[in-house]
Structure of Iron-containing redox enzyme family protein:
Amino acid sequence: MQLPAPRGPVTALLFEALTRPPHEIGPLPGPAGGRAVEDEDLQLALFACYELHYQGFDGVDDGWEWEPSLLAARQVLERRFEEGLAEAVPRPFPAPHALPLHMRRALARLVAADGDGPCLAAFLERKADLGQFREFVTHRSIYHLKEADPHTWAIPRLRGRAKAALVEIQADEYGGGRFERMHSELFRATMRKLDLDDSYGAHLDRVPAITLAIGNVMSLFGLHRRHRGALLGHLAALEMTSSLPNLKYGRGLRRLGGDATACRFYDEHVQADAVHEQIAAHDMCGGFAAEHPALAGDVLYGAACALALDRIFAERLLDRWARGTTSLRAAAPAVGGR
């Protein structure tokens, strides 16, 4: 993956630094203000900082991953993001003494309360044209081509029942050890069938801040041990809201001419996530809350963040399509013209 084009003063300074060997960098410019989860400069800067812990960028020295001054600059960006999340996502307040014993029920109530939001899945099932479905897949490629990786950060930070449950879920995400069944590879097949570039990060320049924020919140939670409860709640929310939407995505893609290979990614999630939902809510989150009752509220907050960001994402796509415009950004040249 190449460094993308900057979207403001923060990414301009950051990307210029990353094209050179690791060195001490000064403070990054302050954010422009506005809603952090939709701040293009902030979200792209965070994505780039986090990507150094995943596949990295061509031409960027791996030594940047742990460069102290870059980590300090990232901390400032993260603080702004966390403040923005706190503004956008009200923290659930269940009875703390009862929560560890009723985590599954609390998560189910949280998911049910979110059910009145915009139904992107229904639109894709019944009304979307092929161009709109391709746009949706383009957005989702930013996460699905690294699917499961952010949540895997939690494995060494857990023990006991919660750890075993997370490993069980992640093993399925990675295809049970079979490359061709990894969910990221199934998604690549969907992209190829839709004549989309399936290379890692190919569409980074085209997606807006909210798409990046959906991935960034996973990395934020995953890379900080203090957020391990939120990371588990985030994963539980994804699993608990996956089966029915993926059923609709598959139906929508078949309506548009998609064959079994194109739809397999969605079909796989209908089956797998129905099982994962129970494991995630009861064994993983319930087990974690029982062992760490003081962090039980973090689990619900992580779930709420997942639901809220996905709602904002759905609103953006449906609004753009209702106005007859694209939900993607105009293509831009990468840094250095690469």
